[in-house]
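Worked example

This section walks through a single chain of length 561. The input is the sequence exactly as stored; nothing has been trimmed or padded.
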Amino acid sequence: MGSNNFEIQKLSAAIESDNETEFSDCTNLLIEGKLSMTNEYTEESTHYKRLTVDDIAESLNCGLFQFTCSVVCGLCFTAEGLIIQSSSIIVMSACDLNINADNRIWLSMSLLIGIAVSSAFWGRLGDSYGRRKVLLLALSMNVVFTFSSAFSFSYEMLVVMAFFNGLGCGGVLPVTLTYAIEFFPRKYRGMAASSSNAYWCFGNIYAALMALLIITQSVAISVGQVTLTGWRIFLIVCAIPPLIALISLSLMPNSPRFLIKQGKREKTLKVLRAIHRINSQCRTQHGNQPFCIKLSDLPTIDDLHLSDDVDDVNDDNDISKNIDSCYSKLQRFLRQYAILYSRKWRKQTLMITVIWFLYCFCTNGLWLWLPTFFSLYTHGQKCQGPSISINSSHSMNTPALNQSSICIANTHDTSIYRDLLLTTFATLIIEATFIPVINVSGRRLLFSGLALATSISIFSIWLTNTSTGVLVFSCLFTGLSGAAWTILNVWTSELYPTQLRSTSNGYINFCGRIGAVIGTMTFGLLLGLGCKLPIIIMGTACFIAASLALFLSDTTKVEIN
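Given that input, the structure is written out below as tokens.
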């Protein structure tokens, strides 16, 4: 009977995999009577030990496709990095829009508010309708509103454009990393995700370099009623990387993890075959291996054994069951967020949320104001004791006419953009140093150590009293905080299973961006009164985040499902 069941399974596999040779052999056995088709042949006899979701990920040997995926996801981070960096540059250079000390905070604030209010929404959509679809829509928004910002005829319009740009960024930031890690086996997951996230540095470098080459030049091109000055041309150029990322992503497939969780086995197999075919083009140790996965090997919805506390996202798309009311659909949409605070996930969610809030509060609060901080030293101001010492006729609260003259001086002062460029290069160098050790030292220990070093560098910015010292410690701050940021993103994406990953990333990004908004507002308001208090607040918040991280579980080299 055992032999019969085995042969029946072979026949079923041959039918399902459309293998003519195996089907013919099994048919001959039936003709010869070697298989007894009796009551012993039940539905249970056709069950296999199917692959798990993590088994499928482990079968994806790294090759040309994974390299391409890492680069494409990196381009998405590049686009978002330069959009956020550009807002801090425009504040200093859009001189024709009457930006002053009272209203300059709102440009960066509107961008961060847009990111905050949309992150959780995009993350949930990523779990329901696919990571790729969400990314394509979010990147399209970035392209449109970055380009449109160049034609703003007032500061209010520029602020509104920044808000809608932030709505797009809120989709790209949490979903990109979710999409990236689902194509890699456990061995390469950490390095791949951190490498993609490290492309953020290239966005910062691109923004600083374009500012140095374009804004500092006396350029004026008339287009209708708008005169394209340096900062406007700069924004047009900033729309190019998001466009490249959009085109590149449109050529990529859906995540196999997402597809299999949706029960789309045929599409999953098609994606896996495409990945194997692309990897076979490159001669590696896995390049010549045959593709061995059959449709019968892939798990069904029943095989996945989803736990009762996880909402099956397939219900969002299965319209054949019931046409629910809008209220029921909203309940199902929000149920995923409630799961994050169920008994199983509550402690972890609260801890990682607080860490994100504090870390975004301190790093974004200072990072977005670094260009303005550099300009203080350029105009003879220093951070001494509890207040800003002013050694020239320019102050933080000078009249609008003087503010305009300072703005014009900033656009032609190459030292400000040069210093900004140096800090972005420092981020790239430090991140490149720590990426290779992410799987060795572990996510938890590495992030905690880098966050602690970031806290020390923040305090050092205040203690120094020279423009050179501020530049050196600012380079350390941006480099260390950028590396820690990369580790935190990877770590967060691995803390939750596939069906919760995009939702959790979006929700935690939302909480983090709320911290970024508060931090940016706090630093901007307190900087006009003195630089001692905001620096102490930011450094302390970073230290607390580093300490709390030690109480979270490490995800290095463990299954993420």
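What to look for: The longest strand covers residues 381-384.
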